[in-house]
Amino acid sequence: WQPFAYAAADSKSLEGHYFLYGAMEMGAELLLQKDGTFSGGIAYGSADGIAKGSWHVEDNTVTLKTDTASRPPENNLGVLFDDLQLAIEPNCLAVDFGNGKSCFRRR
């Protein structure tokens, strides 16, 4: 059992600059802003991408909603941020890009 305050996750405590750990040959950054917006970047081999949009917390999960209109058409990997859900775990925003669990961690 977890206290309601933790299960509902205070959004303010999640603001910050995160880096992806645990994804082989993949690098990513995620910046969660105080105003509920985010920006992110991802690289995998020679492909990369960026995304911007909004974020919110519900049921111990951070959900990203990208602004697809602001994404350049050549931005191949930016789609990985579309409706991305990150499970809130201690010291980690957990994600699976299809190659096992990885974590966005603050530095």
What key phrases describe this protein's structure?
1 helix; mainly beta; 107 residues; eight-stranded antiparallel beta barrel
Overview of this protein structure:
It is a single chain. By secondary structure, the protein is mainly beta. The chain has one helix at residues 4-7; strands at residues 16-21, 26-32, 37-44, 47-58, 61-66, 85-89, 92-96, 101-106. An 8-stranded antiparallel beta barrel has the order 1-2-3-4-5-6-7-8. The longest helix has 4 residues, at 4-7. The termini are far apart. Residues 1-8 have low confidence and may be disordered.
Briefly, what is this?
The protein is mainly beta and 107 residues long. It contains 1 helix and 8 strands.
Q: How are the SSEs ordered, and which strands pair?
A:
Layout: H1 4-7, E1 16-21, E2 26-32, E3 37-44, E4 47-58, E5 61-66, E6 85-89, E7 92-96, E8 101-106
Order of helices and strands: HEEEEEEEE
Structural class: mainly beta
Distance between the termini: 29 Å
Helix content: under 10%
- Spans of 5+ residues with little confidence (pLDDT < 50)? 1-8
Number of helices: 1
Label the overall shape: globular
Number of strands: 8
In spatial order, strands of the major sheet run 1-2-3-4-5-6-7-8
Largest sheet properties: 8 strands, antiparallel, barrel
Radius of gyration: 14 Å
Strand content: over 45%
Arithmetic mean of pLDDT: 85
